[in-house]
Amino acid sequence: MTRTRAREFPAVFTLEERDCSINAVRDNLYLSQMKQFDANLLFALDALLETGSVTEAAEQTGVSVPTMSRTLTRIRKLIGDPIMVQAGRGLVATPQALEMRARLRAFVQEGRELTQLASPSLLDTARTISIRADESFISAFAAPIMDAVHLVAPRLALRFISHGEESVGPLREGVVDFDIGDIKLSGPEVKLQKLFAAQFVGVVRSDHPLASSKITPKRYVQYAHISASRRGLARGPIDAALEELGLKRTVSLSVPTFSSALTIAAGSDLVAAVPEHLTGIALKIYGAFVFPLPVRTPSVRIALAWHPRFDRDAVHRFVRDTVAKVCSPASLKQGSKHS
């Protein structure tokens, strides 16, 4: 009977054999992690946190609702956190998801830039651009900017948000693409482009006594006024200019926005002062009487601000150029002729 000799293994591995074994373990671990991690999950998570809805996130990313629901399950498993939890009929982000949001947005933006280096056609680009501006700018320019954008890039969406505390953080992180207004920010993290100088005009209802003859400073102060100020201030440059003439106006009402002031003045005895770019709305929608202020006040420089990291982003650059064209002095002058 022939005995089978057991296979002998070396008691000690050579250095080369040991290194091969270690590399094999590392490769298997890496492949395992790659199977679990999918960068598309982070893009989906960004959409979920932005919309707060599985349905809307699915529409934004171009997938079905069941697919987005399964993606959310994968995200929860990857991160080890519920990420979105039910609150009434909607979903709200967990504390961990909120903590990730700013860094996630920056990652997603960077990912878009890397994949769009070949300058994809604007005609096929689906993306949301966030613009922070005050309500008077939004009222006057949101629609014409959107129209001009959609002539070239019909799948781009514009999301206007109201002004809050001025900070470079949202621009850096991509939470806000552009800041528009009287920008005070400066430094290496902010790029600025001047749009126009905003002058102020007076507005009253069409049959107001002021509309009957030439408006002098003395006639101007005979009527009650409405002040527009986010901080609730009743005094401003107009009052300083009147004081130089020995005159004082009576401010009977203060409101937070110019649009509110315009609406109220068009239907009351009050006199409002609003940015000149609201003239078209005052005339076309309210049929109000618009007049030059009888005193000189300083203009306000309206500028477009963005972070330098988006300088070469094709979509970003296109929207910048479009906003600048719509808000150029020549366009504003042309628009006033048709008001």
Automatic annotation (TrEMBL):
Alphabetized CDD domains for the sequence: PBP2_DntR_like_1 (cd08460)
Entry GO MF terms: DNA binding; DNA-binding transcription factor activity
Superkingdom per UniProt: Bacteria
UniProt keyword list: DNA-binding, Transcription, Transcription regulation
Pfam families with a match to the protein in the record: HTH_1, LysR_substrate
Domain (HTH lysR-type) ranges: 37-94
SUPFAM superfamilies: Periplasmic binding protein-like II, Winged helix' DNA-binding domain
Family: Belongs to the LysR transcriptional regulatory family.
Protein name, per record: Transcriptional regulator, LysR family
